[in-house]
Amino acid sequence: MNVLFAAFEAAPFAKSGGLGDVVGSLPAALNAMGHDCRVIMPKHGDRGGSPLTSFRVRLGWRDQYCGIEKAQADGVTYYFIDNEYYYKRGGIYGYDDDTERSAFFSKAVSESIDRLEDYRPDIIHCNDWHAALIPLFLKDRAKTVMTIHNLRFQGACPQWVTGDMLGLENDEEACAALRWHDGVNFLKAGIICADRVTTVSPSYAEEICTEEYGEGLDPILRMRRDALCGILNGIDSEKWLPCATKSELRSELGLEQNESAPLFAMVSRLTEQKGVELVLACADRLIGAGAQLAVLGTGRADYEAELKKLAERQPGKISACIRFDEELSHRMFSGADFVLVPSVFEPCGLTQMMAMHCGSVPIVRRTGGLKDSVIDGSNGIVFDNADADGLWWALRKALEIYDTDKYAEIRENALKSDFSWGRSAGEYIKLYESIS
Ligand code: ADP
Ligand code: GLC
């Protein structure tokens, strides 16, 4: 199969979270099975390749340059959409014009697919709301799969976008697909127009059809239930191998070398989704019980400030690294005893898998992909309630088993758990075949 993955990020070129990991590893796994999967993404900053072609793209009244560049990584061909006005910036997201940057990406990809030398994709696999207009633009021209990595982000914007930005005000079908309440919703259009819709774990596919997890789109998802399924993410299991010891990690983070203290770590975007408040609420009690805590993350300013304060109050016992640092994340997954993932909701979650593969025991909340990858008392600890009491229940359990045979057994099972892409890649192929 020839499958072109369209996404705003892919490691190693750009990564802000799990989307970058997935688009940076799933195509290589599919290629290893004999397929030709490629990636198309924006050229963020200077991270592109060699020029292939260029043309103009219309976006409403705008007439924009669009270059395509090409590079290889890990046996996968990457195409980069080059437009300095939209993408030559310091970061990947977080700009006032993210809607327009995403609309341009979707339009540019839709107009690129006939210009990729002799490569003819059978399927365009669109990821998250930045790529969600591709199924709309390509409705009768190509088969598309729309993957939802996180339903919280939808690209909701005002009504005027339909005409001014997309030039679709006279296309009734497109207007209907885009319309959402008083405005427009990119992801909704993707869900309506794609041939298949997927999420990144089976449980999340079920959850988003309910009001509790549906982020307002549950009626649309229920309408497309027959086209919707969940396929659990994998990780690059050759990359995420143990790489540091607990003692090395402690020296690096300035934590006391105390053999009797279990070390709990968390690597995460610091947002409400990730249960940061639960960790803040339990931190003092955890240290009081003789443990250590190390957090690596960036995000909400108030969470960052709280974590820094905690670390100042508990030197040698709590460490807070407020930055994005993939190498340190790897050493934390390898050196910690336990890795915390107390998410309020979690479409899949990759840190629990990375942690297990690197030899630390995950503590997760029973939701989404966390529920699909961690089994309580077998390869990790799982708790139910998304509040401080819920997490504290799990932490107490962790403190009890630390340094016992039970801990060794769980760690052994975690190390043995298979999160390589093998099985899930096969499920994607079946899905592609069902529509091609
Ligand atoms: P999400 O995509 O919702 O952020 P995932 O668990 O799927 O959650 O993926 C997060 C990815 O980003 C993991 O690879 C994790 O290690 C990484 N990550 C998050 N924050 C940081 C950070 N501050 N430094 C390094 N890696 C990080
Ligand atoms: C999203 C989700 C996360 C998932 C990742 C990769 O960012 O929040 O749970 O693992 O995408 O699919």
Question: What's the total count of β strands?
Answer: 18
Main beta-sheet annotation: 9 strands, mixed
Q: What is the domain total for the residues? A: 2
The share of residues in helices is: 25-40%
Major sheet: order of its strands?
3-4-5-2-1-6-7-11-12
Low-confidence stretches: none
Question: How would you explain this protein's 3D organization?
Answer:
The structure is a single chain. It contains 19 helices and 18 strands. With 436 residues, it is of the alpha/beta class. Strand 6, helix 5 (134-137) and strand 7 (143-148) form a beta-alpha-beta unit. A 9-stranded mixed sheet has the order 3-4-5-2-1-6-7-11-12, with helices on both faces. It has 2 domains: 2-234 and 421-435, Rossmann fold, CATH 3.40.50.2000; 246-416, Rossmann fold (3-Layer(aba) Sandwich), CATH 3.40.50. Residues 17-19, 22, 149-150, 200, 233, 346-350, 369 line the site of alpha-D-glucopyranose.
Q: Summarize this, please?
A:
This protein is an alpha/beta fold and 436 residues long. The chain folds into two domains: 2-234 and 421-435, Glycogen Phosphorylase B (Rossmann fold), CATH 3.40.50.2000; 246-416, Glycogen Phosphorylase B (Rossmann fold, 3-Layer(aba) Sandwich).
